């Protein structure tokens, strides 16, 4: 029986809306609280993001990054689409970046 490959998912969550308004950190925490239990754990980091929107004007913004390690299963894509839409709507975002890639678990 083969071992299931682990996946690292990163949710990039900005601290401002697409209109430049500050987002209430409690609102971000509520979204994170809805995301991480689906994956049994997560790490929340903060950092500076560099972004070039469709308007072409470069932006620098503070962001939260929620990192999760999980396995790929049938609900994987559905969960990502659900959370992407939730972040976009609840935090008034033009776009939402979610990345994922396979990782090697080292014991």
Radius of gyration over alpha carbons?
A: 15 Å
Largest sheet: 4 strands, antiparallel
Order of helices and strands: EHEEHE
Strand content: 35-45%
Oligomeric nature of the chains: single chain
Describe the protein:
This protein has a 4-stranded antiparallel β-sheet, covered by helices on one side. A hairpin with a 7-residue loop joins β2 and β3. The mean pLDDT is 83. The protein has 107 residues and is of the alpha+beta class. It contains 2 helices and 4 strands.
Overview in brief:
The protein is α+β, with helices and mostly antiparallel strands. The chain has helices spanning 25-35, 76-90; strands spanning 6-14, 43-51, 59-71, 97-103.
